[in-house]
């Protein structure tokens, strides 16, 4: 290395640190922590119209789903899949009783989603979503896409309990 190059390196500005990757930007292969549990992101469903992402997370054999939506602040909801069946998206009720708990519909929307990695649905397209909440703040989410329903039960997660561990 020449003397001039060494002197130049002394006065060169250090490379700025890379900004931390947002939870909304996580992709399959990234690692995150939710409520003190470390998960690998294995799938991602992105709804651009709502600035929302549903991440498929894996911790060993356990699969969970983290819904992230940016409104005034980032809102997080952690879901687990549940067994259930509905026949027609036009007949989704506004109230659902499940395990002695009554859920009330809070929101219903349709949006175009992009899918990456392993998710309950194999391809992107138009997705219908119904979100419910019970009086004791438990959450229920129903998704319909390409003739298939998915049901999830979960709870809200405070932003301080969610962080990126490693992003590619």
SSE pattern, N- to C-terminal: HEEEEEEEEEEE
Major sheet size, sense and barrel closure: 8 strands, antiparallel, barrel
Report the strand count: 11
Task: Assign an overall shape.
Answer: elongated
Which structural class best describes the helix and strand composition? mainly beta
Describe the structure in your own words.
The structure is a single chain. By secondary structure, this protein is mainly β. The chain has 1 helix and 11 strands, in the order H-E-E-E-E-E-E-E-E-E-E-E. Strands 2-3-4-5-10-9-8-7 form an 8-stranded antiparallel beta barrel. The radius of gyration is 20 Å and the shape is elongated. A hairpin with a 2-residue loop joins strand 6 and strand 7 (101-117). The longest helix has 9 residues, at 3-11. Helices cover 5% and strands 56% of the residues.
Please name the defining characteristics of this protein.
168 residues; mainly beta; 1 helix; 5% helix
What does the secondary structure layout of this molecule look like, with pairings?
Blueprint: H1 3-11, E1 31-34, E2 37-47, E3 52-59, E4 62-70, E5 74-82, E6 95-98, E7 101-117, E8 125-134, E9 139-145, E10 148-157, E11 162-166
Task: Summarize, please.
The chain is mostly beta strands. 5% of the residues lie in helices and 56% in strands.
């Amino acid at each position: 290395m020449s003397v001039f190059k060494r002197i130049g390196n002394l006065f060169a500005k250090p490379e700025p640190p890379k900004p931390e990757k947002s939870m909304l930007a996580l992709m399959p292969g990234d690692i995150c922590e939710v409520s003190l549990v470390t998960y690998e992101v294995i799938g991602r469903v992105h709804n651009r119209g709502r600035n929302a992402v549903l991440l498929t997370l894996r911790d060993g054999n356990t699969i969970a789903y983290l819904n992230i939506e940016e409104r005034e602040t980032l809102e997080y909801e952690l879901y687990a899949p549940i067994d259930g069946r509905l026949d027609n998206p036009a007949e989704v009720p506004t109230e659902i009783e499940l395990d002695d708990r009554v859920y009330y519909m809070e929101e219903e929307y349709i949006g175009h989603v992009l899918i990456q990695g392993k998710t309950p649905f194999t391809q992107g397209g138009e997705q219908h979503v119904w979100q419910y909440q019970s009086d004791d703040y438990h959450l229920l989410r129903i998704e319909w896409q390409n003739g298939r329903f998915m049901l999830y039960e979960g709870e809200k997660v405070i932003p301080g309990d969610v962080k990126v561990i490693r992003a590619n």
